[in-house]
Design a protein that fits this description.
There is one protein chain. This protein has one domain: Decaprenyl diphosphate synthase-like (Undecaprenyl pyrophosphate synthetase). 28% of the residues lie in helices and 19% in strands. The chain has a seven-stranded mixed beta sheet with strand order 4-3-5-2-1-6-7, sandwiched between helices. The mean pLDDT is 95.
């Protein structure tokens, strides 16, 4: 079976999951913590080399305060959980914004925990315009070297992106690294994660014709 080296994860549907259970929207985010750790352990067991989680975006911070506080706290907790695992961990996002949680600043330089056997990236207060702005501020950058001059330059090209919650869009997820990604959508909401979701995505990926434009 041909396995992707790098998987991108868009864990959507937390608010809709909460509403369906009679909760307010902000209550859904904490229910995505255990699925994130379970997915990490599955990827590690399967030999996947890198995984990138979409935490929250610059645009997400426009949501009501209760939701913003809830997803920020969930991201902090998720990173703290991953820091206890066998991972090479990086948190990436606009740290100059007041919306970036100060508790995560120590993780904005890649750190190795355990043996660092799987590379983990966590996007927090991320915006694609912010990411590309670094390159646009420099002169004489060729298309071939663009990926070396963005804030997310330490994140490799993504083979497979999996999105929960049924939406068919990337929502600004790492545009440079996603340029040749295969995109698999799961209709179930992220808090309802099951290992079979990952297995189904990997089986689908195994049958794709990967040409990278060639």
């Amino acid at each position: 079976m041909r396995m992707p080296q790098h998987i991108g994860v868009i864990p959507d549907g937390n608010r809709r999951w909460a509403l369906n259970r009679g909760f307010t929207k902000d209550k859904g985010y904490s229910w995505g913590l255990d699925p994130g750790l379970e997915l990490f352990n599955l990827c590690k067991k399967l030999g996947i080399k890198e995984i990138t989680y979409y935490g929250f975006t610059v645009d997400n911070t426009k949501r009501p305060t209760m939701q913003r506080v809830a997803f920020t706290q969930a991201c902090i907790k998720a990173v703290e959980m991953l820091a206890k695992e066998d991972a090479s961990l990086l948190v990436l996002g606009n740290t100059k914004s007041p919306m970036f949680p100060k508790k995560l600043l120590p993780y904005t330089e890649r750190q190795t925990f355990g043996k660092g056997s799987i590379k983990v990236n966590f996007l927090v207060n991320y915006g694609w315009q912010w990411d590309l702005a670094k390159a646009s501020s420099q002169d004489n950058i060729s298309k071939a070297s663009l990926s070396k001059h963005i804030y997310s330059s330490d994140i490799s090209r993504i083979d497979l992106i999996i999105r929960w919650g049924g939406r068919r869009r990337l929502s600004g997820f790492l545009p440079i690294q996603s340029v040749y990604s295969d995109f698999y959508v799961i209709d179930e909401y992220w808090p309802d994660f099951k290992p079979q979701h990952l297995y189904d995505a990997l089986d689908w990926y195994n049958h794709q014709d990967i040409t990278l434009g060639g």
